[in-house]
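Model it.
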Amino acid sequence: MRQSTPTAPALYREFTQQAQIDAQYNTSLTLPDPAAPGLHYVERAQHARATLRCTLDIPFGPTLHETLDIFPAEQAKAPVFVFIHGGYWRALTSKEFSGVALGLQARGITTVVVNYALCPHVTIDEITRQVRAAVAWTVRHIAEYGGDPERIAVGGHSAGGHLTAMCLQTEWARDYGLAQDPIKAAICISGIYDITPLRFSYLQPMIQLDDGIIRRNSPAFMARPCKTPLWITWGGAETPEFDRQARLMHGAWTAQGNKAEISAIEGANHFTVIHGFENADSALCGWLAQQLGA
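Modeled.
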């Protein structure tokens, strides 16, 4: 009698090998030039700092990493967009992403780019705390830089998409003494909302996930009723897992009776998906301008 070959146990969903998970979540694997996205970000960021008014490295917390860069709009009481950068929680800084202000400033929107400490120096728990503190600081202080604290949107890309979703779960009234829903609108771009698979990926030595971190930082499983309208988006050329993660978050968010749009940015990969922030006529800038009354 022929014996059947044992089936390998699943690591996550249908994935039985790290290589399968890496193929979905290692966003540089299919790029012809893995350095090109970073070079683009740096060039656009340098251009933004050279041509736009800005105040850099404003501390919002007690550690050296807790700073933000503000690119004020020309008019007083301008609406505000707080941008949270990506890098899988273990790479990059606010300085690579100054370019997101280029299109937004042209639409009359003040841009705040958040910096935070990185894994493995800190955990994702601490990064989440720092980003929430940055949003709270913005609500309390942005009027000093010409912004309107009643019209603040928050958004982020990749790890920043995840952190944006974590901000939406925050008990702002209980924990910060703010209005319960101080965020006027939010955009989650190419985020990971169930971070479980990354425990079995190439990222694990740096981000060091455990059961507790996963449970506390998977926003798809902790959605709360919230008045903030949300757009969940990703690049149409990204891997199927980014599509699935977006739909997972959308289902969890709308199940609470919350308002959310979901759509991909066609033709964009994981890195080009945020290029729209550099163009005032893009879908990203247009959606924010509409939500904020810019």
